[in-house]
Write a structure and sequence with these properties.
The complex is a heterodimer.
Chain A: E1 2-9, H1 13-24, E2 29-33, H2 59-72, E3 77-80, E4 83-87, E5 92-97, E6 100-111, E7 115-117, E8 130-132, H3 133-143, E9 150-155, H4 157-168, E10 173-178, H5 182-194, H6 199-214, E11 218-220, E12 223-229, E13 236-241, E14 244-249, E15 253-257, E16 259-261, H7 264-268, E17 273-276, E18 281-284, E19 297-299, H8 308-326, H9 332-359, H10 364-367, E20 375-377, E21 382-383, H11 384-392, H12 398-405, H13 418-429, H14 433-436, E22 448-449, H15 450-454, H16 456-464
Helix pairs in contact in A: 1-2, 1-8, 4-6, 5-9, 8-9
Chain B: E1 2-8, H1 12-23, E2 28-32, H2 40-43, E3 47-48, H3 58-69, H4 71-75, E4 82-83, E5 86-90, H5 93-108, E6 115-118, H6 119-125, E7 135-139, E8 143-144, H7 147-160, E9 164-167, E10 171-177, E11 180-185, E12 189-197, H8 203-210, E13 217-219, E14 222-226, E15 236-239, E16 245-248, E17 254-256, E18 263-265, E19 270-272, H9 275-288, E20 296-302, E21 305-307, E22 314-317, E23 324-328, H10 338-351
Parallel strand pairs in B: 1-2, 1-12, 2-9, 5-15, 12-23
Antiparallel strand pairs in B: 3-8, 4-8, 5-7, 6-7, 10-11, 11-12, 13-21, 14-17, 14-20, 15-16, 16-17, 18-19, 22-23
Helix pairs in contact in B: 1-7, 1-10, 3-10
Classes of the chains: A alpha/beta, B alpha+beta.
């Protein structure tokens, strides 16, 4: 059995940055990531991009290549293609690697599973041809695949970024349908002044929008009552903007309205979580150094609260310093001295974050389904109406509703519908989401073949020798 | 709050008891520390099994099986019950000898619901079974239900008849003053003439408050369920001498049990899984049904369940207090008994007796043992 001082799950900006600090200090560190190359979502394939004109993806993306090479040279043991499916608070990690289950033990565990896109259960969101902006990014970064003539609908920086990337690559875009409500601009205005310290990020965002407008692509602002139209597959979108009804034809619709922490690992480990009202999502409770309610389990990056790629790198370094302290490599005074710069950087990000949270605050119209027949749980095909009936039958808790309706019991194990169900129950009960709670998540983190698990005993025997 | 009867525990036994009492016009409050069906009653394997019952349980289990056949209509809500033959597979002659000895005992007691089958019939009923298996025993009356749905069906039917179910309410103390039981809950106080202890894995604590000691333990039996597969097994499957138990539901998912236990952290209402034992359960499933190698495991979980040293429940009156009754300790096979237990408890509460012989199930059956 392999034992490490620290195991890091996820080789995105947070995980890589932490690994670099730890490995340089001489700590035995293992990094598990399911992708063949490090980078995470944001720097996916940044070191080996299949996109011919990689500059079109932006300088932020290209900067990932340098981080990846520093990580790869750091001396951390990188398990590429390692899919962690169980994380134990006893420091045991079970992961699939080349078709087998392997096990490693660690004194300190660092979870960096990143963010996931908020579900957007508008009418028609489950039709074939509807994808998320994140999926568009994955296709582009991993395989240089694009969808011509697509509609992009929703709001948030990631949506504008992918549209801009498409345009730079010369891919035709049917329209950008922006659902950011007019009132959010007024609400966010006071925050903007406080965020001026981060003028670079602010101007980056503005220049994306300027770039999109300058390209001549149709931009519809303040869109409401958004829905995907079509029969068995998406044929376009319909919405109301500035008092007029619009219909735009497209075979592909990319939806996005922000990201939220990926809770799969932190919830399955039963770490303490709290409700974040600005981002309308649950997030794991950690201290400034990413330490969770289980002392030897830390969380860094977007999974501990959305901070973006730069913030994730700072958070990763901070967690690493704390782990060095816990492992006896650094005194607390040394930790605090070395942490100073990243701590102030993260704290300086806060006003910018508040501005973004305010401007792109998820609206109930996009966060919660409105039509009775709209599917909430895609795996088990449970609609809003099915859930409402379950609630009326007395299932007031997310887990009770799951047991009754099977919503959240399919292959994704409620990882997609969790926030929608919690949001609906909070609305129906007239209570705070914190009171309503969340699904109990369980290992495995994803479907695991019976054949693979049945060979797990052999791993144990080998380890005992 | 006041009622004639306070039922402690909102699992299937508590909800069924409330239903039968409410149907007789008795006012009932059910208090449940989490939510109704949260623990063993809501997360078990859903087996509605008569096959292989201990002789002491057979009369109750047979009655319950009859009640399951028309339970949906009786309650007015779906329990997900499906009648489906249960087969316990024999892998060798030793297993068959075990089955024959059991058959002799059952026939002598006048029971005919279990029938030994040969290899040909086994393969006829389970075409994907490993052909090395030699036969088995079948009960045609058996079946399965959806645990949470069934518990919720009893709860809703009881509520329709006027019973009150208070969730998120833990009983912290229980005293008998004169002819009244006073219960102190976390939220409020309750008064009742009678208490019924259906507190499952926590029932020893309630028993203690009532005045009865009981050697109850708890454990965390583990289950796994696969993603949907093509239909390959209609009957519910067990094995005579191996830890194997599985059933394929109508939607194609396959539930794998077998009795392997994880770790029960009762103080924190939590369970942990023992993956090496689950791996062994996978090997057993694939050994009996090679087709299972292609399955994908979607979820693994465990529930907190109460066990008695002899694996038989406690059903009957308290011995050290008046107007208190127990129904707990079902040792991982109580789900099927829910319907009849509700009726038996209502009989005990309203008439003081049951038509079943409950003497092997009394709470003090271990008291007289001298070690």
């Amino acid at each position: 059995m392999q034992a490490f001082d620290c195991a890091i799950v996820g080789a995105g900006p947070a995980g890589m940055s932490a690994a670099i600090v730890l490995a340089r200090a001489g700590v035995q560190v293992a990094v598990l990531d399911r992708a063949p190359r490090a980078g995470g979502q944001v720097f996916r394939s940044a070191a080996n991009s299949p996109v011919p004109d990689v500059a079109a993806l932006g300088s932020d993306y290209s900067s990932g290549a340098a981080l990846i090479s520093r990580f790869e040279e750091s001396g951390a043991a990188h398990f590429a293609g390692a899919d962690a499916w169980h994380l134990g608070d006893d420091g045991r990690i079970l992961f699939s690697h080349e078709g087998d289950t392997r096990e490693l033990r660690c004194r300190e565990m660092l979870l960096c599973p990143g963010a996931m896109e908020r579900p957007m259960p508008i009418p028609g969101w489950t039709k074939p041809g509807v994808m998320t902006a994140g999926a568009a990014q994955v296709m582009l970064k991993s395989d240089a695949v694009v969808a011509e003539g697509a509609v992009f609908a929703g709001s948030g920086p990631l949506l504008y970024l992918i549209v801009a990337q498409y345009l730079r690559l010369g891919v035709p875009v049917a329209a950008l349908v922006d659902t950011t409500p007019r009132r959010h601009y007024f609400d966010a205005a006071p925050q903007m002044f406080r965020a001026l310290g981060h003028i670079r990020q602010l101007s980056k965002g503005l220049s994306l929008l300027r770039e999109i407008r300058a390209s001549g692509v149709a931009v519809h602002q303040f869109a409401e009552r958004l829905e995907v139209i079509g029969g068995n597959k998406a044929e376009g979108v319909r919405f109301v903007a500035t008092g007029k009804h619009h219909e735009i034809a497209a075979d592909t619709v990319f939806l996005h309205h922000g990201v939220q922490p990926n809770l799969n690992m932190t919830r399955a480990m039963d770490l303490d979580h709290h409700w974040n009202p600005e981002q309308m999502c649950w997030q794991v409770s950690v201290d400034d150094f990413g330490q969770s309610s289980i002392a030897h389990v830390s969380v860094a990056g977007d999974s501990a609260g959305i901070v973006g790629a730069d913030g994730a790198q700072a958070a990763g370094r901070l967690v690493a310093l704390n782990i060095l302290n816990r492992l006896g490599h650094l005194s607390q005074v040394e930790r605090d001295q070395k942490a100073d710069k990243d701590l102030s950087y993260l704290s300086s990000l806060k006003p910018f974050r508040r501005f973004i949270d305010c401007l792109y605050h998820p609206t109930d119209a996009l966060r919660l389904p409105r039509d009775p027949e709209t599917l909430v749980c895609r795996c088990e095909e449970q609609s809003l109406d099915d859930l409402r009936k379950g609630f009326e039958q007395g299932a007031r808790d997310p887990n009770a509703l799951k047991s009754l309706t099977r919503c959240g019991m399919g292959p994704c194990q409620g990882r997609q519908c969790g926030h929608v169900v919690a949001g609906l129950l909070a609305k129906w009960r007239g209570e705070n989401p914190e009171t309503v709670g969340y699904y109990r998540l369980r290992s495995p983190q994803r479907l695991l073949t019976l054949d693979e698990l049945s060979r797990y005993g052999a791993v144990q025997a080998e380890a005992a020798e | 709050m006041k009622a004639d009867v306070l039922v402690i525990g909102g699992g299937i036994q508590g909800c069924a008891t409330a239903f039968h009492l409410a149907r007789r016009g008795v006012s009932v409050i059910v208090v449940e520390k989490d939510y109704a069906g949260r623990h063993a009653s809501g997360v078990n394997a859903g087996g509605v099994r008569l096959l292989g019952r201990d002789m002491a349980e057979v009369p109750l289990s047979k009655m319950s099986m009859e009640m399951w056949q028309s339970l949906d209509e009786e309650l007015g809500h779906e329990t997900g019950f499906r009648r489906q033959a249960l087969i316990n597979i024999a892998v060798n002659e030793v297993d068959l000898d075990t089955l024959r000895a059991r058959e002799d005992k059952m026939r002598a007691a006048g029971y005919t619901h279990e029938r030994i089958i040969d290899r040909t019939e086994l393969i006829g009923r389970l075409p994907h079974v490993n052909p090395e298996c030699v036969g088995g025993v079948i009960s045609e009356l058996d079946g399965y239900a959806i645990p949470y749905k069934a518990t919720a069906a009893f709860r809703r039917a009881a509520e329709t008849l006027g019973a009150q179910v208070i969730e998120g309410e833990e009983v912290l103390g229980l005293r008998r003053i004169g002819n009244t039981w006073l219960a102190q809950g976390r939220k409020q106080r309750y008064e009742a003439e009678t208490v019924v202890n259906c507190a499952g894995a926590w029932a020893d604590r309630i028993a203690l408050m009532i005045g009865d000691n009981v050697p109850l333990s708890h454990a965390a039996p583990m289950l796994m369920i696969t993603a949907r597969m093509p239909h390959f097994a209609k009957p519910v499957v067990g094995a005579v001498s191996r830890q194997l138990s599985f059933k394929q539901f109508e939607n194609g998912t396959v539930l794998i049990g077998g009795g392997a236990k994880g770790f029960a952290d009762r103080a924190n209402d939590r369970t942990r899984l023992d993956y090496s034992k689950l791996a062994a359960a996978c090997r057993t499933a694939a050994e009996f049904f090679p087709i299972m190698r292609k399955a994908s495991i979607n979820r693994m979980w465990a529930g907190l369940e109460a066990y008695m040293p002899d694996n038989l429940p406690v059903i009957g009156p308290a011995v050290n207090a008046a107007r208190a009754f127990h129904a707990f300790g079902f040792s991982a096979h109580g789900f099927q008994m829910g319907p009849v237990v509700g009726q038996v408890m209502a009989d005990l509460v309203t008439g003081g007796q049951s038509r079943f012989d409950l003497s092997p199930l009394r709470i003090d059956r271990f008291d007289r043992k001298v070690l």
